[in-house]
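Q: Sequence in, structure out?
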Amino acid sequence: MSAAAHPFLPLVFRRLPPEEMLARARAFREEVATRRSVREFSDELLPAGVLDECIRAAGLAPSGANRQPWTFVVVTDPELKRRIRLAAEEEERKLYDERISDEWREALEPLGTDWRKPYLETAPALVVLFRQVHGVRPDGSHSTNYYTQESVGIALGFLIVALHRAGLATLTHTPSPMGFLSELLERPPNEKAYVLLPVGYPAPGCRVPDIAKKPLEEIRVQR
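A: Exactly. Output:
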């Protein structure tokens, strides 16, 4: 394989002094510590361009063989949001009534969640992230995508942090199953819904569960 066929570019990289590295790492950690999953949204519209910039940032995530196996569908139409809510609530009602175990129900109790999802209509925008399980060439044949679950998961992480950095709230919602999203949003067969992300400002007086994250000592292992 020739270098001419697959050219490389010089890496643009600025090495930082150790004290600045630590300051940046600490500042980032302190900022993301304020991010919370929100279930009470304002219907206030988003500033123009903000959501697109955040999606651009998510599209810069690394992916297997650089296939970039993701599609971000932005939903702002009120009627379509209503239809998504009704379909999601139908699946969620079945989940809560028939599918989840007692252990799962107990784990959800501190979060105060149930099958009702009014925020799917209230939030000014829904971002539905689809995973492209394979590519489609111009002639209709399939091309292979690699590590799609991992790649799309990284892109989702980029998006959530970008939206938080921009001053917006989100919720990772994964109704089970999510096939109705492909139908309502008219996506091709090679795309599978990965997550449904309401985006907006928190509602006035918004409350979130009083929960804590594990300390460093519980998540880091030194060998």
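The longest strand covers residues 191-200.
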